[in-house]
Amino acid sequence: MRVERNRDQAKRNTHARQTPHRAGPPLYAALDLGTNSCRMLVARPDGAHFKIVDAFSKSVKLGRELERSGALSEAAIRRTIAALQVCASKVKRNRVTRMRMVATEACRRASNGEHFLRQVTRQTGLKLEMISPAEEARLAVISCAPLVDPMAEQVLVIDIGGGSTELIWLDLSALAPEARSRGMMTLSIDKNRTGQAAHGIRVVDWISVPLGVATLHERFSDVREVRSRFALMSCYFEDEMAEFAPYMDEMKPDYLDQFQMIGTSGTVTTVGAAHLGLSRYDRSVVDGMTLSAGQINDVIEGFLGTDFKGRIGQLGIGLDRADLVLAGAAILQTLLRIWPTDRLRVADRGLREGMLYSMMGADGALKGPR
Question: In which band, very low, low, confident or very high, does the pLDDT at 17 lie, cut at 50, 70 and 90?
Fold first, then answer.
């Protein structure tokens, strides 16, 4: 009798391990496969926001040599699929109930992008969605919404990615200050870039410039002298964004008191960490911090010094990413020169956070003011 009871208990224990009970809200997953990195968050709703329960980030360099060849290389595909297999195991282990997984500029531009995504599904079970530049811009805005200043009437969100840079100029003046963050979370963006109004927000203009830190670096990688390369990258990026309406109209800083620039990218957070003198990155002190234009320019000037790679190394950034930081700094300084604002809000958040807010909001899982 005792043996049978022990067997029954063993069966119950085995069943419990196979089907663990998970109390509380459901889990969501958001994966962003970019030109340089593969990143995923697993989170659960927590009031008006969410709590991260698992994460993954890997530099896969999916877009390496894309500028030259026009296709994703076999080596890049192997690296990326290996990373996505880790993501698949995390999704399964956490028993995620709702997910969204997207691919951006590298897959959009590559001649074998669609084939690669089918290969990903066959080998990992994950189904990645190749999103449009308009959707990428929308998700960037949603992710930054909690950081908008309630008094800001004009907001420029910049997302410096690996293969593209999104610029979205919003007019929030028709919304009450307390409604501006929530309004940004429900934003829709017209793929035709026409100025539209929704929920009291007018999209003055948006653009996806097909240049990010990886593609801009590759284009000028043969220029050895750092300052010369930096200047060439800055000029080239400015030329590529020339059709952005706020740039064409030479919008003057008549409303600087009501203007806010929010930057989301590894470039922006690296500049923030460098200003703070961090030797080990700490998201809790970087996300949401405000940098003056002078502070940003001081950091970038340090990057342009004789010990450029040594300066990057002090931040705990691998030398393989040093050149990408320089390309991102060229983009950032160009934007600060065009719109001479005296401050930038730093956002350590991006498409993953945008997807999580969007999914949870659609499900009614977020509660309270945002």
Answer: very low
Question: What is the strand order of the sheet 154-160 is part of?
Answer: 197-198, 201-209, 165-171, 154-160, 259-264, 343-347, 290-292
DSSP state of 3: H
* 289-342 confidence digits (pLDDT tens): 999 999 999 999 988 876 666 666 666 666 667 788 899 999 999 999 888 788
Going by C-alpha positions, the residue among 104, 222, 207 that lies closest to residue 156 is 207
Give the sign of the dihedral formed by CA 265, CA 198, CA 360, CA 345.
Answer: positive
CA angle 213, 290, 316 (to 5 degrees): 50
Q: What is the pTM of this model?
A: 0.85
Bridge partner residues of 42 (DSSP) = 29, 54
The answer to whether 207 and 233 have CB atoms below 8 angstroms apart is no
User: What local confidence, expressed as pLDDT, does residue 161 receive?
Assistant: 92
Residue 292's DSSP bridge partners are 343
Name the DSSP class of 320.
G
- Alpha-carbon distance of 356 to 336, in angstroms, equals 30
Sign of torsion over alpha carbons 29, 30, 31, 36: negative
Token pair recorded at residue 151: 């008094």
User: Could you give the C-alpha distances from 16 to 3, 21, 54, 93, 350, in angstroms and in order?
Assistant: 20, 8, 22, 14, 37
How far CA 132 is from CA of 60, 139, 166, 279, in Å, comes to 21, 11, 12, 36
Quote the strand ranges of 129-214, DSSP E.
129-130, 154-160, 165-171, 197-198, 201-209
For residue 210, the one-letter residue type is P
Q: Which amino acid is at 5?
A: R
Burial classification of residue 236, based on how many CB atoms lie within 10 Å of its CB (0-12 exposed, 13-18 middle, 19 or more buried): middle
- In 3D space, the residue among 195, 178, 289 whose CA is nearest the CA of residue 244 turns out to be 195
